[in-house]
Amino acid sequence: MENAPGNPDDTPLSSAKRLLLAYLAEHDAPCPVCHYNLRNLTQDVCPECGQQFRLTFGAVNMRLGALLLLLAPMIMVSGLALLFLCIVCIEPGRAPSGVYVILVTGFLDVLAAFAAYWKRASFSVHPRNTRALLIGLSWIANLAIVGLSIAYFWR
Ligand SMILES: [Zn+2]
Fold first, then answer.
1. Angle between helices 64-90 and 99-118 (to 10 degrees)
2. Which of 56, 72, 78, 85 is deepest in the core (most CB within 10 A)?
3. Mean pLDDT, the chain cut into blocks of 10 residues (155 residues total)
4. Span from the CA of 62 to the centroid of ligand 1 (angstroms)
């Protein structure tokens, strides 16, 4: 059904509203706020709670698992560095000099984790093999840091 030219309802917003109402004319859908069944809704407002709706779309699978696998070792080393920072602050004389290497790498890992999270969209479009390689490198580098920190701390 077309609106007459010049009709103020003939906007992209009203087009989205028409699509929303057409969908709800044929489907059961709960109100996201009060769970009232919105089937056969005639306005873009819930009759039960008054919540207004809009038509949107989103990704089914954000592929966050690979990003979490990339970030996990960085967060682990950052946490270890925070633990060592507490030890250095509590007993500054007992901390071995190697602890400061871990503190610096932990700080760099925090920056790397924020950068990886910031650029997560470009990470997720890499081919699967490239993502696996980056995840593997992150784990290897950070496990090496953990190994070195343990060797320094207990020598
Ligand atoms: Zn509602």
1. 150
2. 78
3. 46 80 95 95 94 85 84 92 86 73 87 92 89 95 84 68
4. 27
